[in-house]
Amino acid sequence: MTETPDTRFADPELIKTGDGSFSIFLPQLNETYHSRHGALHESKYVYIDHGLADYWQQLLAKGETKKEVNVLEIGFGTGLNAWLAARWAMANDVNVVYTTLEPYPLPVEMVAKLQSGFEDPAIFNQLHHVNWDEWHEISPLFSLRKVAQRLEDWAANDKLEAQYDVIFYDAFGPSKQPEVWSAANVLTCANLLALGGVLTTYCAQGQFRRDLRAAELTLVKLPGPPHKNEITQGWKI
Ligand SMILES: C[S@@+](CC[C@H](N)C(=O)[O-])C[C@H]1O[C@@H](n2cnc3c(N)ncnc32)[C@H](O)[C@@H]1O
Asked: What secondary structure does DSSP assign to 73-115, as a single string?
């Protein structure tokens, strides 16, 4: 029996956001992949500055170092976070090993439209066109594995360990896709974080924050990017 396609993710539309970068709007879900005020700025601020960079800084502050940083992303989407992480790896000379989950990949025509907005389309195209469920060395300091599954299914089927240093929790908003923000998913992510690791997200919802605390992560509230009050980190300490 074939599965009925999920129409919520149908008919994606390309949009230009406030900082000139591109994103996607899903009409059925009435939701965008990034802030309309600036996709590039939001992703860099939430996931790079307050994800990878904060994690690396606290490691250095403790006088520790690591051979590689393991990242898990919930929602590959346009690949913007992955592309920024690949650039951060190069700029900081840190090896990043990146697993990303995406059950509803964008159509190839949409990827072709998006690529013109990227300063480095070669890396962007590689991220999108490599095979799923295999590891790929995208550059000497950036390895990628794309998993075509929902977080809840992957967590139920895979043998998972507390191996991720940084988790980018970048699902659609809790009002649009509440199932992804379930307490069970939050607990899964908390269990997947290595000691000293951080989960970072644009989401500042009260219930989500209570679930992070219940999963024994230490909550940090940070000022948001333009037009957003706060974002959230959860540290495993
Ligand atoms: C806000 S967008 C992600 C944006 C993306 N990180 C980027 O840089 O473009 C949310 C993504 O989560 C994916 N998604 C939806 N349900 C999911 C689930 N149950 N588990 C993991 N990802 C999911 C969507 O298909 C979508 O690509």
From this structure: EE--TTSHHHHHHHHHHHHHT-EEEEEEE-SSPPPHHHHHHHH
